[in-house]
Amino acid sequence: MFTKVADFAAEWEQESAITVKLLEALTDEALNQRVAEGHWTLGEIAWHLVQSINYMSSMGLSFPAPQAEQPTSAAAIAAEYRAISREMLNAVMTQWDDASLLEVKEIAGGQWRNGDSLRLTITHQAHHRGQMTVLMRQAGMKEIPSIFG
Ligand code: NI
């Protein structure tokens, strides 16, 4: 978990920049690539990344929500991500201090310290980025940014 806002801020800057790179490489054609019949499309996973950041508002952070509907273009999803990832970071830096990270919130029946939630936000995003790069290959995309080499 994170115990210092500054540590989260530094890591979020790096991690969200990687996600931006990936989302900006997405093509509209690739958005419909599915994991498997009945499972998410690449576009849905990309949009899920935006919405999962918005979920941080349930930890008591206040920042603007993304648009309600999933955008139809890859560029619009990337733009929503760029906005909300910046807004969330700004909210953490201005509305929380290091002590806030130790506060516990009840989420889905579990007890979560805010510092745990911030850590999970980063891990969760990395998990879905991995899915996205596979789907981007399956969609025939040639230009896929390298993530961690
Ligand atoms: Ni998820």
TrEMBL record:
Organism for this UniProt entry: Brevibacillus panacihumi W25
Alphabetized InterPro entries for the sequence: DinB (IPR007837), DinB/YfiT-like (IPR034660)
Residues reported to bind a divalent metal cation: H48, H124, H128
A Pfam family: DinB
Lineage, broadest ranks: Bacteria, Bacillati, Bacillota, Bacilli, Bacillales
GO molecular function term, any single one: metal ion binding
Name of the protein described by the UniProt record: Damage-inducible protein DinB
Family membership: Belongs to the DinB family.
Annotated keywords: Metal-binding
The keyword Flavoprotein appears for this protein: no
